[in-house]
Q: What sequence folds into this?
């Protein structure tokens, strides 16, 4: 499932906003008793076509979130956004999570579940219809959503790859 056309983005010139998708408490049982720590999955984006996700683990919630933000900044990808929606329908599977998304008319809003909604809002998509099937594990849902978005191509990219003018993309 490795994507070859993923566009990496530098973080220095971006103003990123972070969203906490999920946080869970994990327990390690030792002979001295239970040891609690936290794992946080965070999505960052500039609300203008750039998004990334990260996982942070630490003994305190705030430290786990900040580690997740730092990890997310290392995994930024560029996503085509056309008039506040996605360019075409897309399906993707990651682990047990399956996601389906399709473009929506202006004014529709983000019709998506929790983990997917955070990704769409971070990337700047305002109108989309999305459905998740299979596992509702937030880690896999976020990974599937970001991977599906990073595989999207707009008409200008398709025209450039085919070496034809933009007018022939739709008229074949």
A:
């Amino acid at each position: 499932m490795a994507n070859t056309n993923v566009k990496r983005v530098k973080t220095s010139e971006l103003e990123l906003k972070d969203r906490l998708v999920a946080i869970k408490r994990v327990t390690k049982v030792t002979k001295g008793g239970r040891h609690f720590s936290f794992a946080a999955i965070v999505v960052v984006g500039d609300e203008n076509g750039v998004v990334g996700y990260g996982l942070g683990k630490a003994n305190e919630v705030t430290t786990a979130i900040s580690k997740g933000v730092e990890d997310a900044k290392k995994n930024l990808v560029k996503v085509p956004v056309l008039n506040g929606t996605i360019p075409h329908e897309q399906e993707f599977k990651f682990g047990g999570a399956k996601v389906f998304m399709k473009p929506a008319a202006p004014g529709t809003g983000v019709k998506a579940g929790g983990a997917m909604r955070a990704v769409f809002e971070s990337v700047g998509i305002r109108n989309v219809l999305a459905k998740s099937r299979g596992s509702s594990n937030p880690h896999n849902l976020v990974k599937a959503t970001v991977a599906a978005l990073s595989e999207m191509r707009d008409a200008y990219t398709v025209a450039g790859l085919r070496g034809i003018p933009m007018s022939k993309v739709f008229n074949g």
In short: The CA atoms of residues 99 and 132 lie 4 Å apart. The two ends are 29 Å apart (CA to CA).
